[in-house]
Amino acid sequence: MDWLDGISITCFAASYLVALGLVVSRIFFRTSLRKYLVIGIMVAGLFAHTVYLMRHAGMEFSSGGVWTGNWSAWTLAAAWCVATACLWIVIRQPQSVVGLFLLPLVLLLVGIGTFLPGESFSASDSRSVWSMVHGLCLLLGTAAVVFGFAAGVMYLMQASRLKRKVGRSEWFRLPSLEWLQNASEKALVVSVALLGMGLASGLFINLAGNRIATETDPNAVRVVAWSDPVVWTSGVLFLWLVAAMLFNRLYQPARQGRKVAYLVVASFLFLMLELGIVLWSGHGATPDVSQNTEPVARCELPSDQIHQETV
Amino acid sequence: MNLQLVGCSHHESGIRLREQLAFREDQVPGFLNLFYETYPESEAVLLSTCNRTEFYVTGRNPDALPSTDEMIELLARHRGINGSTVRDSMFHHRDRQAVFHLFKVAASLDSMVLGEAQILSQVKQAYQLAAETNDAIPFTHHVFQAAIRAARRVSRETKIHSSRVSIPSVAICSLAKRIFERLDNKRILVVGAGKMAGETLTYLNEEGARDINLVNRTFATAQELGERYGGKAHPWEELESQLGMSDLVVSTTAAREPVVTGGMFDRIEASRQQRPLLILDLAIPRDFDLEIGDRLNVYLYSIDDLKAECERNRRARKSEWPKAERILMQETDDFLQQMKRREGGPAIAQLRRQVNEVKELELRRLLNRLEIDEEQRKEIEYSFNRVVNKILHPPMASLNNQNVDEEEQQHSLLDALKRLFQLGD
What we know:
heterodimer; A: mainly alpha; 11 helices; B: alpha/beta; 4-stranded antiparallel β-sheet; 57% helix; elongated
């Protein structure tokens, strides 16, 4: 259908913005129609978002059955995951202002996705199954960290309001502390697992590239690109998340209340740092041949060889 | 609509009179049967709650209904008091006012606690009892069903029922829900076994709490309360250990000094491992040292903190009053209009039938005398129909569109119609 080709980032970003505006409008007036409007507009936004990802963002299945894409598309896909979670909560808890916290993060991810490199990942990277696992884990891990951050911030606000004995407000209703604590804790555990798998698959891609490169050229000395800022910050983020999760699991009081919230908020800051570095370094994008520079630890073999090595 | 009402409520009558005129559920059928012995052509409903006793009477024939004084006398006599002593403390309404009053009562706009939900089920119960006593109560059926519909509309379209206004209900249904997602998996401790504890236990049960523990200085009272509301009683000496295990504590003792001091809380704090604890201190003077509220993950609320929310909710409900009243006025008008149509319906149908019979007769006579084709026949039939409709339209419109306030005029119009066109009853 031709009209679907006309869907752009502006379409779904505007939908999310309008939904956010409707959530904010709770301050000014009350209407029972608002929740249906918010849900309707978010469904429309998600539809446009899905179409955009499928048609325009370069996320498609390659001939080898592997999902390809680029940094921009993956970030927009992470935004899609957070928006879907937001819609789910809005439907389950229409009186709460969860959208006030999640929708700005969705818009932030959409904004970052717009600025991130739109070039496809280097041919070899994008066509290995491990690359897909790498990208998918990082995408879902990013969404989990972002969601956990929103839950953590809401927890801190709700706890502070309860401590200060601020009465229940008609326009500013947050989920219960227990719900927010569970959500933060689950987001922490899920993000550790996914980012850990993402990091491990990334290392595997590097090592596979090294082995093949060494076989081809015995003089080539290639190691995991620890000097790549994206690689080392990913490692630091992962270590932080592991430490946070262990702290959370082994030290009983850390499973209660604010400490979980602080952990997920700090994780988000790490994630933003990492996305900033990706934006700055262009990690994973096709190298600019005109400058003849080549990322240190990137697998540069034909896709069929990579496939044989990794699957 | 012939509806008469006499009654007393918390607005104009003291508790003494309300107690004198109150009926237990099992006394109502006896009273209604007594009423039907004297007024067999009427229909009656008796609504009796702790805040009101209201006696509604309706029927097709207004002459067959008792007068207001007779209704008061009947009520009073049945309760063993003299009607003249209570007459001045009772109110009475007729027709539109009575319908509007019933709608207000059902929608809890007339309740002591504005927006309380119990009254609607009491209205339904009163109607049910009336229907069980006499199964031929068509007018009562219409007006009470309309009242229930109106109350539901108010509940749906306004926020008059949305916020809680009593201290225990705000504490459990509003505040505790901001901390705990559910109460069925929480350990709850109720300290004290007074009236407030009982009311709190009702709301805890409503919210699905299962693990309720009671501690009271007099163990037997705690046991009794536990048996009545569901909960396990513990001796007073276990207060400290119970506190260490609980997620939600409701304290309602009449102690002059705090029963839980900062020092006592220090001893249990380590075992709690910073698990969130909501303390609802509903006692005056307070049962918990104020400084306990400063501890990590402890949320201590006193009765004053909750009172503010109750007051805010009361104001919120009051602000919904005009909207709710508008809805009830509209529902009253619609109901009376509907009843009026129902009342005039048979006469109108009969008039149409009579006129159509004349039309058919004359049409047949004319068509038999004329030699015309099918198309011309149809044209003549069409013209006859138009003439009939045009003649009938103005009187029908006058009957249907009359203002509900002009009920008497509507009755006289209906009578005139019946007499002019010689329509039977």
